[in-house]
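Suppose a colleague, Dr. K., hands you the sequence of a protein chain of 598 amino acids and asks what its three-dimensional shape might be. Before reaching for any lab equipment, you can write down a predicted structure in token form. Begin with the sequence itself:
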Amino acid sequence: MRPSPIQPANAANRADWQTLRSLIPYLLEFKWRVIVAMSLLVFSKLANVSVPLVLKEIIDAMDKSHAVLVVPVFLIIGYGLLRLFSTLFGELRDAVFANVTQRAIRRVALQVFEHLHSLSLRFHLDRQTGGVSRDIERGTRGIGFLLNFTLFNILPTLLEIGLVAAILLKKYNVWFAIITFITLVIYIAFTLFITEWRMVVRRTMNDLDSKANTRAIDSLLNYETVKYFGNEQYEARRYDHNMEHWETAAVRNQTSLAWLNSVQSIIIAIGITALMLLAADEVAKGKMTVGDLVLVNVFMIQLYMPLHFLGFVYREIRHALADMEKMFGLLHEDREIADAPDATILQVGSAAVQFEQVSFSYAPDRQILFGVSFAIPAGHKVAVVGSSGAGKSTLSRLLFRFYDVHQGRISINGQDIRSVTQSSLRAAIGIVPQDTVLFNDTIYYNIAYGRPEASRDEIIAAAQAAHIHDFIESLPQGYDSMVGERGLKLSGGEKQRVAIARAILKNPAILIFDEATSALDSKSEKAIQAELRTIAQNRTTLVIAHRLSTVVDADQILVMDKGQIVERGTHKELLALNKLYAQMWNLQKQEEQTQPAD
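The predicted structure, expressed as tokens, is then:
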């Protein structure tokens, strides 16, 4: 079936034009610079086209027996100045336009970065970090190429071709213009056709490059796991498998480029030869001078270079568009979770939280919550316990509005969280997650991340409250110690205490402890539990716990099973019921008794 390839090509062309149009606002931001740069471009090309005309006059003047020496001297000086101006104006143009290009790269990169942060958790769980980073890297690099070469190579080359064709048509035999025109048409048509075909190879190379980069970064981030299982060679084979396919595509790309360049050279050589034969015949007949012959030759050489470059530039522009395609595709990713047009700032106040008949599923065939209802009165602590997969952590994700509920409602002080801005909602909530991932920066930076504008004294106070200050001070670099990629230089308990300090520093109205002490030993857990109770006072607190001993003081305990609340009450009330909670409590007590002392 023939139509199917046409539709993607048309769609790709539309996407290319949309990409080009999307760059217009960045040009308008520096419109005067663009105007000056374009003016310098025109002056440069006028000087370049004038060079052969002056060269013809010099040769003709020197050919005359009665030539006066002063005339060629002035012409030669003019020739030298024109040569200088053709280069100088080009360099000035690049200097004037540099700000436009670099600002466009910066703005687009920032726009993509901000958009990635605005996308839902679902997107980031599915993404491949290595591939995304490579797409952004290639895309931003493509912007600079596209702006510079579209404005300063495609347009001026076409201008120069038009000027040369007009001069040839006016001064000489019409066949000069006809041969030039036919050569250009054949050259451009061939270049466009083959380049479009080669774009498939380029896109394949990009995909394989992103996959290989994803494999490499994923493997390096999981360095310890690779070492645990001795799978270095397995990882190397997987990486090399992708690189092998990339190599095949790259060789195909390079060989097709060599073939394209060869045919382009043949087309130009035939055109120049035909023109020189015609010019030589005109000189022999006395219709043209030797200067005219040189003029035609220089014009064709001047056309050949930019024309040959035009083929290269067009190919590279198409490649740049292909490189930018995925990056701009990221900007079109649906946010899924977005502020309502009339979203208001959350009025935190005393921060009472209400879940009303909340149902939720990550996928249509995997429902997690079924009609969950509970309230956390202002300043109270509610704990949620249950087996793994019961839906406990999903509650905190919904409260942060990483996802929207499918049925029901979540409110804070009676305000539906879907009707308030996400920034004001998340500013009111602090969390200590089960799996703490830190930035590859200093301990100071990671604690300060809870409130970047906090003073050093406040950061140290938060570290002391989290019982990690003494440990930090014992390090050679203290608070300036680097934590490594994802905090791997710290133990699980140390990372957890950094997370607790970060939450304390944020000083939110609502606190969430998601297995907050799961990585701590018993002694540290007891010390931090006392601190957690202190910072939770007068705050609305949701505790998601596996160890029941950590939630016995909760105002209410919710027992979840298979996405539903099956029991609720205080610790004593639930033990008196002698159902699921009592079974879990007795089981954990038995496990603690059978565990050997450290």
